[in-house]
Amino acid sequence: LSPHETSKNVSKNVRIVLIEPRHPGNIGAVARAMKTMCLAKLYLVRPVEFPSFDAERRAVGALDTLNAASVVERLEDAIGDCRLVIGTTARARAHPHPVLSARSCAEKLAREANDRAPAAVLFGPERTGLSNRDMDACTFQLTIPTNPEFASLNLASAVQLLSYEIFLASGQAPAPDPRSVEYPNQSDMEFFYKHLEKTLVSRNFLDEARREVTVSKMRRLFGRARPRIGELKLLHSLVKLMERDGR
Amino acid sequence: LSPHETSKNVSKNVRIVLIEPRHPGNIGAVARAMKTMCLAKLYLVRPVEFPSFDAERRAVGALDTLNAASVVERLEDAIGDCRLVIGTTARARAHPHPVLSARSCAEKLAREANDRAPAAVLFGPERTGLSNRDMDACTFQLTIPTNPEFASLNLASAVQLLSYEIFLASGQAPAPDPRSVEYPNQSDMEFFYKHLEKTLVSRNFLDEARREVTVSKMRRLFGRARPRIGELKLLHSLVKLMERDGR
Question: Does B123 touch chain A (CB under 8 A)?
Fold first, then answer.
């Protein structure tokens, strides 16, 4: 599989399972959070209220993800065919499951989830979290790192953070700077530095003893700014102003 | 500075600046998102409605962060003393700022923010994002990686993701498994394996030719499960059942 197909596979085969979500607004916010990170498989186990206007309102542009949600009565209907099931808990519990951070959980999902091996991450009801019985269906426990004195992550925020880590771990994130910037070449830069130096000499700005040091400082300053082609023209114009001012 | 003081310093010296936030609910959700990740410095530049009941409702347990928010009229009142200012944009813009991902932005903040050098990350109004004028106050641009076809991150979600990365980058996250688990020692495990093997032999379960292979399989299986002390007792009891059954 190409890397692109692999990452599509991960997105397609990781399910977010909400168990008895109480506030329909949260379901909508979860759908939106998932879609921002290319996840689409949402399962709702016995939602208190669904479908709902509040869910649609909070989903904003992710109505497709929301409307495609599978509503099921029993947890096993959501995860029966999954080969990796992970339960989310606000704090590490006494449960005998190995604890994963959001990042290590996402890396595990990216490695293991595929068409023959779907995976699921469970989120419990807003106030109480997953029951011990639901945790028994899991082989790992996800605990998102938070402030030890305030671990109160909103349900949609928890899904958002995990989805983001899955998006990064599956290699789908575009390069951080996709714009094509046109930089001048090194000769253009040298031409500018010479122009600047000549002008400064003509205005008696450069003390002969410190000339080299000062020119070197200027080079470092303008080099760090890494001017674009248009910006270099602007700098030439400024230098020309210095020339004229003295005449 | 100790690592603990360093990370406290980061939390104290990174400001989240919301410019003209339109929905007070979002302000509350931002306060909550910040507090879950140990951030506390919230600045509101010309909020459309604040204070507000909706903001308090969404802040849940982060009323302290919300009530400590600084409300200012001009952006410069929020960032005048900052030595690093980063503007958040949904997509990389034509702006001549280097683009940072959430992770690299957080690493930069963790390296640079301290008592003598506060830093700020700006978030624009919900619909329009930061104006070009606000971007002019920035030296870097933060673009959180998202689905290229649906970059619609909620304001609080964007703050949540960045705050999470700052929390991780500043080394404040606790180890993923802080529970103290008591494992049996290697002699205890050996004692169990011998018990199991002896029992299987007594029940004629082990074919002599394959005895070694089968025992080795069992060792690998139970080794992988890594039983706790109490669980090892349970396994001994199961083996005892196998013994008795044959008498």
Answer: no
**Interface ipTM:** 0.85
Looking at beta carbons, which residues of chain A come within 8 Å of B104?
176
pLDDT digits (tens, 9 = 90+) for B43-97: 999 999 999 999 999 999 999 999 999 999 999 999 999 999 999 998 766 666 8
**Is A43 within 8 Å of chain B by CB?**
no
Query: What span, in angstroms and rounded, lies between the C-alpha atoms of A214 and A205?
Result: 10
Max Cα–Cα distance, chain B, nearest Å: 87
What's the pLDDT tens digit per position in B182-225?
889 889 999 999 999 999 999 988 888 889 999 999 999 998 88
Token pair in block for residue A163: 């989805």
DSSP assignment of A191-227: HHHHHHHHHHHHTT-S-GGGHHHHHHHHHHHHHHH--
Residues 6+ apart with CB under 8 A from B244: none
A–B: how many Cβ contacts below 8 A? 115
Q: pTM, whole model, 2 decimals?
A: 0.87
Structure tokens at B141: 């641009």
